[in-house]
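Key idea: predict the complex, not the pieces.
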Amino acid sequence: AAKENGRNRFHYFTADMQKSAQSRIRLANDLRVALARNELLLHYQPIVELATGNIFKAEALIRWQHPKHGLISPAEFIPIAEDTGLIVEIGDWVFAEAAKQAALWRALHDPEFQISINKSPVQFRNNGETSVDWIAQLIELDLPGQGIVVEITEGLLLDAASDVTTRLLQYRDAGIQVAIDDFGTGYSSLSYLKKFDIDYLKIDQSFVRNLKLNSNDMALCEAIIVMAHKLGIKVIAEGIETEDQRKLLIQAGCDFGQGYLFSRPVIASSFDALLLNNMDA
Ligand code: C2E
Ligand code: MG
Ligand code: MG
Ligand code: MG
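Result:
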């Protein structure tokens, strides 16, 4: 049923199950075959231009339709995927799936449509992924790199063990754009923003949640937005749930927004309907 209505109603594990090492091992084993059994799926959440409400992008968010446990949240299984190294294979699948969808929505709805995908720091270590693969896939789909935005977190930019510089340059060469996810919550070094030629900052939802006029959170949002714009970086606010938050973010000069106010993450066919409505508006 969760799949039908396209909403994320997760069946969370009990605290006991989470703690149990055995259940983690079982889950890791299940995850190993989940890809082959087609149990992983992507939901898409619209990213709207705040001033107009038009949908210009989507974030792809992974879910696991487990045969016994129902729809499992990435917060539950991505850490297991990272520990076991399965994140590499899963990440390749996410890229391929999102790229296919981006090519489709660019052809059907908007030639500049972008889908952003999340990348774990683990995917930047050693052979985190094969660069040959994804470039070939872009060519095969006739998808310009601009159709894809890669979301990374601040910590990665300081991770000496990763080949982040090389990879980000490869993305840049392929036209793929880069967003800093959950901005403001990690160990950030602002100098990295210029060094790595970032395209988007995503203001973490913890700054948006209690947003009020003349509040500290408002001051932080305004400062982040001014700084980003001076560096030629666009800003996306995450976790917008209320009309007030939307208005305050517009007032602060924020470019794009994402959150339950506009839509929850939904399956591709439901997102199609959102895009059709969007064009009518
Ligand atoms: P994220 O990338 O920061 O994604 C935003 C999260 O906020 C999503 O949770 C989304 O459903 C949720 N969200 C969106 N709007 C609202 C709102 O208005 N209010 C509230 N309370 N929440 C909102 P989700 O889908 O559970 O994903 C959690 C995290 O899992 C993501 O955080 C991301 O770090 C990770 N993740 C998701 N998909 C992937 C993937 O394909 N690969 C990797 N490596 N990580 C992923
Ligand atoms: Mg993200
Ligand atoms: Mg985020
Ligand atoms: Mg995150």
